[in-house]
Amino acid sequence: MKEPENKRRVLKERAQALARERVAKGSEAAVEIVEFSLASERYGIETGFVREVLVLKELTPVPCTPAFIAGIVNVRGRMVTAVDLRHFFDLPAQGLHDLHKVIVLRAEELELGILADDVICVRSVPVGQLQATLPTLTGIRAEYLKGVTGERLTVLDAGKLLADTKLIVNEEVV
């Protein structure tokens, strides 16, 4: 095996090992999340769905798309759709200048980026600390909810988000 291929294989194995949910002996199961801020609220998304986090440099708008499709970003030659969850979740919009990060999510063949104000950290959240919902969390956000912690961190269900057909734009301009 060639040296670059061997390095890639080793790095991929390490990344996959780090992305797995961690379960400490003698304690309850935990889910590892990427915590980010969006419209003055804190959200989390499972690291198993996160391909990478990028600084938002250029965003190309795409005509004839829903308002929650902010545009596309170039990720090393791949065009990735960028979704503005503020529009998708009906949160107050403050303009794109506040959005500084793109969290690229991937499940099977679907890949998309979600815009974030900032990425705070990667951390583990014990599954037992996730409450089903909050009374103030209604509408579309509740559909994609995995749980809410006591510190009001909303953990999104990336699997549901990536499987939703509302996020797939398949229209032709005539």
Q: DSSP helix count? A: 4
Instruction: Tell me the number of strands.
Output: 10
Named CATH topology: OB fold (Dihydrolipoamide Acetyltransferase, E2P)
Question: Structural class, from helix and strand content?
Answer: alpha+beta
Q: Distance N terminus to C terminus?
A: 52 Å
What is the approximate shape? globular
What is the CATH class name?
A: Mainly Beta
Helix content class: 10-25%
**Strand percent estimate:** 35-45%
CATH superfamily: CheA-289, Domain 4
What are the segments in which pLDDT stays under 50 over at least 5 consecutive residues? 21-26
Order of strands side by side in the largest beta sheet?
A: 8-1-2-10-9
Order of helices and strands: HEEEEEHEEEHEEH
Radius of gyration, in angstroms, nearest whole number: 17 Å
Please describe the biggest sheet, giving its number of strands, its sense, and whether it closes into a barrel: 5 strands, mixed
Mean pLDDT: 81
Shape-level CATH architecture: Beta Barrel
Overall number of structural domains: 1
Describe this structure in words.
- The protein has 174 residues and is α+β, with helices and mostly antiparallel strands.
- It has a single domain (28-165), classed as OB fold (Dihydrolipoamide Acetyltransferase, E2P) (Beta Barrel).
- It has four helices and ten strands, in the order αβββββαβββαββα.
- It has helices spanning 3-19, 85-88, 140-143, 158-163, and strands spanning 30-38, 41-46, 50-55, 69-75, 78-83, 101-107, 110-116, 118-126, 145-148, 154-156.
- The strands form two sheets. Strands 8-1-2-10-9 form a five-stranded mixed β-sheet.
- The longest helix is centred in the first third of the chain and has 17 residues, at 3-19.
- It is globular, with a radius of gyration of 17 Å.
